[in-house]
Amino acid sequence: MPSLRLRPTGFNPTRFRPTQFHPILSRDKSDTLLLIFACVCVLLPHTAHITWWVSAASALLLTWRGWLTLNGKRLPPALLLLPIALLMMGGVFLTHKTFFGREAGVTMLVLLLTCKLLEMHAKRDLFVVIFLGFFLLLTSFFYQQTIGTALITMLALCLLLTAQLSFHYTGVVPPLKQRLKLGASILGLAIPVTIIAFLLFPRIQGPLWGLPGDAQSGRTGLSGSMAPGNISELVLSEDIAFRVRFNQAVPQKSLLYWRGVVMTDFDGRTWSQDERAGPVSKHHVVFSGNKIRQEIILEPNGQNWMFALDVAAGQPQIEGAPITSSLVNARMEIRNARNISQRLRYEVESYPVYKLETNADQNTLLAALDLPVGYNPRTMAFANKLRATYQDNRQLIGAVLNHFRREAFSYTLEPSRLGLHSVDEFLFDTKAGFCEHYSSAFVILMRAARIPARVVTGYQGGAMNTVDDYFEIRQSDAHAWAEVWLEGQGWVRVDPTAAVAPERVMQSLNYAVPRRGLAGLVNLGPTGISLLNVARMQWDAINNSWNQWVLNYNQGSQRNLLNSLGFLDVDWAQITLLFFIAASLVIGLMALPLMRNQQRTSALDKVYFSFCRKMAKKTAAREMHEGPQAYLQRLRTVLPAIEVASVERFLLLYAATRYGKISEPETLVVRRLKTLLAECR
Questions:
Q1: What is the three-class DSSP state of 271?
Q2: Cα torsion at 160, 161, 167, 172 (round to 10°)?
Q3: pLDDT in tens, 348-399
Q4: Which sequence positions are flagged as catalytic?
Q5: 3-class SS at 497?
Q6: Which residues contact 195 (CB under 8 A, 6 or more apart)?
Q7: Cα-flanking dihedrals φ and ψ of residue 483, to 5°?
């Protein structure tokens, strides 16, 4: 690889002694391996979202490049690289069905970077690899904007800068530690200006790096339908669904039902929601007791439903959005105007005691009795038997719950697969299931006994993070329960899971279903090892702060910051001017210590440099590598004999003073040199 004839500013070869280390690898090999390692760090964040074969191909090509470097082999010819490139482009098209768009574009850039490392024959190829690495670091934020991604990006930036510096050195190369320190220093100098730009650069509404609508594909969370196994798969995730801050003490665990989606339609296996629900009417729900105000930070889930404690009393107040951006419908679901593709903060109120739809219309009740024909005959017969035994609806509900308690029902994350008559098999054969099995079976029994009922999915419980005082609800808290309609009471919550596993509702999932394997050894739930649990709380609190102060820093946050600094009602032009003023001040403050650290030219050297400039104008300029003695030898051959004597006296006196030991004070020597310089004129 050809070296660039440049020397980075600030490099002082006298700071280290090259004889003190003996590199095992040649310079070209070590620099190339450093560049390969930097590219590995660049590609590392992309492995979470690119196709598996792209990660495998990239790893194979990088390994091949490293092997060629270590063994001193020649790079492969174009006749070999061209078929490989065409094959990978074909794979991109087969995977994404296009060469355009974010997914296909990022994939091609990843493959281009790894292929380009095998085709570096000139210094322009080096620049292509390095700047392509910079660009790929930016694209990683299309997918993840976590603290981990930011830290990996900073590491990759430092390594890319170090690799770029390494190829600029000529002659003696400083140790890797010193080059890394210089690369980190360059990166560090950019951080203050970056912070100023982040805080003061004019913002559009929403996050500065808001993502396209398809960026949320693959998000975990509750779906709009429920079938056996849906929620039991979701609860294996410890991702945070949303965070809550209460305006008072946290309600007791058994009351923490976070209402999400209400499902009324059943096709024999899957429950789904009815999209035809209208807005809530004035007398639809009657509240009593003290209200509970919640500040909720909802993580992106790609859906349009929001959550509140049980039923919401009025529209939620969304930060930075009009009140019409969300709607509470007749089933007391909170629906956002659009799918939630970025973190959402809102405030909502709830009451612990309420009566919901006591005067329900006939169509609503008939829809809550509908069952498909030809499914679950044993369940239908059991419901008819219960109806004949219990005429009172409350007694019938109690009988079903007692049936769950008395029989050998179990609560498990690994239920058996169910066939066509899934409820029959669950109630009378397997008797093992998760919350979706119990809620579904209970609602079907109620409907078969002519009691209006429906399924509600959401979350139950949560845990307090004592570090930042936010109540955290995770995907593992996902839950399903039932609502039945009773005369004079309206819709009443019934949780059949509590009849089988009351510890699930009173405490947490970890009490109800102990984790197995490694998850059981390292239990990070509220009952897990205290040290690990505290560490997780600390990390969650840091992530929460990152989400609120960095990722959610929008136009409103910027306006609040400027107002707190005394800048009221500023427009984008004034913000831009303020940004440039602040950035200039920061750059000036950073430049002051750098200017003070510059080596000052002594009076002795100033006179010498003046002599060199005079000689350059008169006859011959001094070469960079020439010392006073070598310069004198050359001047003797080009100067007239009458001028050589004064030049000799000047250079010999300067060399003796600069490199020898002279007892005279330097000020006197400078005066004598100035006199000799005048004679040289």
A1: strand
A2: -130
A3: 999 888 999 888 888 889 989 999 888 889 999 999 999 999 989 999 999 9
A4: 435, 479, 495
A5: helix
A6: none
A7: -130, 135
